[in-house]
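Problem statement: downstream parser choked on a complex file, so we are re-checking the raw output for the zinc ion run. The parser issue turned out to be on our end (a line-ending mismatch), but while we're here, posting the original submission so the record is complete.
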Amino acid sequence: MSAVDHIGIAVRSLAERLALYEALGLEVGGEEMVESEKVRVAFLPVSGTRIELLEPTGPDSPIASFIAKRGEGIHHICLRVDDIHAAMADLKAKGLQLLSEEPRLGAHGSQVCFIHPRSAGGVLIELLQPRR
Ligand code: ZN
């Protein structure tokens, strides 16, 4: 793990919540649809890391079910890795449960996977290998 890449926060509406982060002095560095996760995301860079706001694109989005169950709030933390396949193999060998067998396509052409919260003390941890 080389850095905290970002902290993911589930929001009902990007337009509504962006005002709060802009009031804090942050600016949107980019917005993108992530089809694989059924979310629209906005990244706000802050001191070497980023805040990722996640808005569901429909009622079948995992973020929509998260908000229905727990309300808006912190959804996951994301750690950056150099080699996601090696990281996944290593974690599996250590007995951790991953949410997918293969990395999935994340924002900005990155490859991502998630560690099951059951294996991580209730925290959803995302691993991200940036696009080379
Ligand atoms: Zn994320």
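For whoever reads this later: The two ends are 16 Å apart (CA to CA).
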